[in-house]
Amino acid sequence: MLETIQRHQATLDTAIKALHGRTFYAAFPENPSPEIYGADADRLGREAFESLRGQHFTELLQPAPEQWVGQEESPYEQQPLGVKYPFFSPATLVARAQAGFDEWRRLKPAQRAALLTEALDGMRSRFFEIAYATMHTTGQSYTMSFQASGPHAADRALEAIAAGYEEQTRFPEETTWEKPMGKYNLTMRKTWRAVPKGVGLVIGCSTFPTWNTVPGMFASLVTGNPVIIKPHPKAVLPIALVVAEVQKVLSAYGLSPTICQLAVDADDRLIARELAEAPAVKLIDYTGGSQFGEYIESLRGKTVFTEKTGVNSIILDSCDDLAKVAQNLAFSVSLYSGQMCTAPQNFFVPAAGVRVGAELVPYDQVVQTLADAVSGLVANPKVGPHIVGALQSAATHERVQQLAFEGGRTVLAHGPVAHPHYEQARTCSPTIHEIDAARIEQFSQELFGPVMLIIKTRDTAESIHLAAHLAREYGAISCGAYTTDARVKEQIMDEMSLAGTPVSFNLTGNIYVNQNAGFSDFHVTGGNPAGNASFTNPEFVIKRFTWVGFREPA
Amino acid sequence: MLETIQRHQATLDTAIKALHGRTFYAAFPENPSPEIYGADADRLGREAFESLRGQHFTELLQPAPEQWVGQEESPYEQQPLGVKYPFFSPATLVARAQAGFDEWRRLKPAQRAALLTEALDGMRSRFFEIAYATMHTTGQSYTMSFQASGPHAADRALEAIAAGYEEQTRFPEETTWEKPMGKYNLTMRKTWRAVPKGVGLVIGCSTFPTWNTVPGMFASLVTGNPVIIKPHPKAVLPIALVVAEVQKVLSAYGLSPTICQLAVDADDRLIARELAEAPAVKLIDYTGGSQFGEYIESLRGKTVFTEKTGVNSIILDSCDDLAKVAQNLAFSVSLYSGQMCTAPQNFFVPAAGVRVGAELVPYDQVVQTLADAVSGLVANPKVGPHIVGALQSAATHERVQQLAFEGGRTVLAHGPVAHPHYEQARTCSPTIHEIDAARIEQFSQELFGPVMLIIKTRDTAESIHLAAHLAREYGAISCGAYTTDARVKEQIMDEMSLAGTPVSFNLTGNIYVNQNAGFSDFHVTGGNPAGNASFTNPEFVIKRFTWVGFREPA
User: Fold this and answer.
1) Are A172 and A225 in a shared domain?
2) Which of A320, A329, A520, B179 has the fewest CB atoms lying closer than 10 Å?
3) Which residue intervals define the domain Aldehyde dehydrogenase in the entry (chains A, B) (predicted)?
4) Segments forming the whole domain that contains residue A197
5) Which of B509, B539, B546 sits opposite A525 (nearest CB)?
């Protein structure tokens, strides 16, 4: 075990340093290139994925399943994947988690951190397999599937390990306390323990099955809590592969694999509520809709981290090059068909137009430039299909196709986006609607999917006010703003900071408001109703354990 | 302002270092000696206090009071103090707090930390005045009044300032992020802000009006939140003096004094609920009974820190010198007549007795030794009255006098403790009752005041089980244990750590389970129902602000 700790210590130290420097750092290269991952890595990963189709998933070290279940289907093929997972009742899962608690909590933080970092090496060896699994459950493009579910997720997991390790070792394990009492010194030996809270439950979402799951999973684990991973029933395979890698490491070191379990819903029985309400479950990480998220937050006696829905805004005030801005925003709204929690939805444009250099470009021309950029991007057969991917669920597809607004104007209608390899791909190009700023009820909710709302405001002050108001009241995870005016910029920073929303200013070229970088950008702030699962600020880890001290005369 | 920051930087740096080293540190000497605080300090402080009796308290920089209110009385004199405070309606208090928010949050953490440290210097200059105010509102002895409300409180306040400053400066204000993209680098300028949550409310208790108030008060302030201090209506003056000192510094630096306001209940109108429910109030620190504490915790959209009631245990297994142990415990149970949140209540003694060295001392003899130690201590006219102090409230006095148990046996009856200077002092010596371990309903609640319950258990294993069970289910803030057996010790540490309760082992001599040391002992862990207001772990400060990031192409 000492050797294992030493082997991973440099990675951990570098990660902690990166967390605090917040300059660029990635432990896992995001480029799926043969030079980095090996000439056969992609092929082997695809073959491994293909061999799982229609099979029982037997890798998990969780004995005696009650039945075999599975309901995934590929958004590209609109066919079942046919993978079947072992099902266990919540009572069994919780009892097994509790059974593993003592041995796991008694390890030192450095031991847990090393074992979990080793599990990420295992995950890395399966990045391509995870990528195909992600593509055929979420509808993400190949590249996004690789990056988001592989290296980016692993980096966020390493972040959580590093942050958890750092916080648990921030106070001494032992010290001598010597108080001068005048004629003598009072001397005490004091020790402290970072005590884990109990069983952790991590409830995943259908669109980012590993990226949104691994931070809470590894944060709970590194702080000594056994975890039960309850994925969305339509996106199990990517995280099942990660759980299998963690179990492999646990088992190799003589620990109980049930310290980290997969909990799959049966086809006719959803188990999230029962798990969440189990008294032994003390920590819950949740990604998904706000309604269930609020139920999770309402449970007494649980420490909860959520990422729920929100409405993300773009504020257009002034810029140097409108075409470049429009291209950047068209990409952001099209990327994975708006199914990212960071995708922009509401685009606030002043009625008087947008100042571009010395010129004032009229409102209508701004709208048309945006619409042209979107349609140009999506219609480009070499680019469009690989950006928009597929819609994860048929329900989203149907809802987006039936979207209707009172008043306003449809600027761009949705339509299919032909995929070069998958004829059956469930696709839909972005819809653009124009709505008056007064119709706030029409743009104050998240419209999940490829929807761009252009909201005509009196001026930038109203744009800022509305963006901040929506973030405060309904939540927001990202905000983009374009302004060349330093005073307006400060006003946006000030108001959006109070609304707990990070802002990307003046993005053009190859960086997008949707993206955030591990070790640098905090994802979700906790400052608005979109949630408090901030990857990875100190709060995300320290609430998972308790400091308890002991003392005795020396 | 720069000069102010420089002047206090060394204090702040030392405090941060102390927080992490957790060795002995005190910025404010606890000894009320003329050599330290000046030859006239005690006399001047007493005179200053005396001059406030029967007067309007006009120091606060809060204009236009709606009325003058006050209902304090001295537990030593059982006479009203007659001090009248300005009353403001909750709406006025909240509006004024909000009006001060912008200027306060826009200061840098280093500026706020320096101003608040300066306010502690002002508090230090009034330690003796605060001591007399504390004595004549809480009933604490002179020495405890000085130490707890003066230097110990100021140290805990400095802890909160230091922890808050450190956490807010843990990530860079600005950095350049440069990502290699193959042929070029993507370069972003990134900045972060620690954004305060909003108005803070601090609800104080009647027994430790500054010690339990200043940590939350200074933690909220240093993180940029204006605060409203709502003391217990019977213990206003000590904290009013502290608030006045903070306001003095704010005003001297051209800031609004309403960044820190005193909010006193009117004689016929309690305002805590109205303040707590105000939408602008985002942070609440609460010390007091569990019922109101649970109401505070149930409020949605608030970040809450509580210290509620608990039942503290002593586990007697084995020791080297029973007489010394009994003396130590007698002192602990008598100190301020059991009105400390850390006072022990339940003493678990195995039916077979306690092993003392090579000998097994029978149960009855252990009980008698404890009772003799208590009665000997209290009956000593030179010591007793100065240890037990007075009972803060007539209600506690009455309740303790009427305590009745089903079954069991009264080992020692309560009685008055004559005070050498105050004939009218409201005193009551500790009551000792013996209860069988099966009657858990009789010892599972906090019996506030001088009450010692001796619970006969089957063995030490049952003692540990009961102590941990009570802590987990009903809360505990301290635990004392006596054992010479390393295995038993580890078992106690393990079980009590899971119950979120710190343990003091084998205390004899001049250190007591009730006491905890600033910069070293975490007070309250968050790991059981007694509360989560942990002085001062990182969680106690980081939940008061939100990290928000901004980025822009460089």
Assistant:
1) yes
2) A320
3) 93-503
4) 38-308+533-553
5) B546
Q: Say whether A453 sits in a helix, a strand or coil.
A: strand
Nearest chain A CA: its distance from B327 CA (Å): 16
The reply to whether B416 falls in a domain is yes
C-alpha–C-alpha distance, residues A59 and B73, integer Å: 71
Are A548 and B525 an interchain contact pair (Cβ–Cβ within 8 Å)?
A: yes
Contact A510 B537 (CB under 8 A): no
The verdict on B147 and B242 lying in the same domain is yes
Contact A179 B517 (CB under 8 A): yes
Contacts of B309 (CB under 8 A, 6+ apart): B289, B290, B341, B445, B446, B448, B474, B475, B530
**Cβ distance of A493 and B549 shorter than 8 Å:** no
pLDDT in tens, chain A (554 residues): 889 999 999 999 999 999 999 999 999 999 999 999 999 999 999 999 999 999 999 999 999 999 999 999 999 999 999 999 999 999 999 999 999 999 999 999 999 999 999 999 999 999 999 999 999 999 999 999 999 999 999 999 999 999 999 999 999 999 999 999 989 999 999 999 999 999 999 999 999 999 999 999 999 999 999 999 999 999 999 999 999 999 999 999 999 999 999 999 998 999 999 999 999 999 999 999 999 999 999 999 999 999 999 999 999 999 999 999 999 999 999 999 999 999 999 999 999 999 999 999 999 999 999 999 999 999 999 999 999 999 999 999 999 999 988 888 999 999 999 999 999 999 999 999 999 999 999 999 999 999 999 999 999 999 999 999 999 999 999 999 999 999 999 999 999 999 999 999 999 999 999 999 999 999 999 999 999 999 999 999 999 999 999 999 99
A505: nearest CB among B186, B496, B550: B550
Distance from CA of B215 to the nearest CA of A (A): 18
Q: How far is A537 from chain B (nearest CA, A)?
A: 8
Q: Are residues B369 and B278 in the same domain?
A: no
Same domain? B252 vs B342: no
Q: Is A11 contained in some domain?
A: no
8 Å CB contact of A21 and B172: yes
Q: Rounded CA gap, A441 and A448, in Å?
A: 16
Cα B4 to chain centroid distance, Å, stands at 29
- DSSP string of A484-503? S-HHHHHHHHHHHHHTT--E
Asked if residue A288 and residue A430 are part of one domain, the reply reads no
Q: Are residues A216 and A324 in the same domain?
A: no
Its pTM stands at 0.97
Alpha-carbon distance B241 to nearest alpha carbon in chain A (angstroms): 29
Q: Please state, in angstroms and as integers, the Cα–Cα distance from residue B119 to each residue in A118, B5, B25, B116, B252, following that order.
A: 50, 13, 20, 5, 11
In this structure, is residue A428 part of a structural domain?
A: yes
Which uninterrupted H or E stretch holds B306?
strand B303-307
CB contacts of B510 in chain A (<8 Å) are 181, 186
Q: At B274, which CATH number?
A: 3.40.605.10
Q: Is A468 among the domain residues?
A: yes
Residues A331 and A417 in one domain: yes
The total domain count for chain A is: 2
Altogether, the residues listed in chain B come to a count of 554
What's the CA gap between B475 and B466, in Å, rounded? 12
Domain match, A397 and A544 both = no
**CATH code for the domain of B490:** 3.40.309.10
